[in-house]
Amino acid sequence: MQDQIIQALRQNQADQAVQLAQAWTHDEPGLADAHRWLALALQQQGKAEDAMDALQQALRLAPD
Questions:
Q1: Are residues 15 and 31 in contact, defined by beta-carbon separation less than 8 angstroms?
Q2: What are the residue boundaries of the structural domains of the chain, listed by start?
Q3: For the chain, is the Cβ count within 10 Å smaller at the N or the C terminus?
Q4: Would you state the CATH architecture of domain 2-61?
């Protein structure tokens, strides 16, 4: 899933990247990387507050 998100972001398809990342966080809610990629995709959409929420969730899951 990560590779698909990266590809979407490289092609400036932030909406697609967000959809993929949201699906990933839905399928694996305990996976910090999924939330981190969601945060990055949301940032690319210009949704800074939502991105921060996703990043905070990633940090809760993997504080290291």
A1: no
A2: 2-61
A3: C
A4: Alpha Horseshoe (1.25)
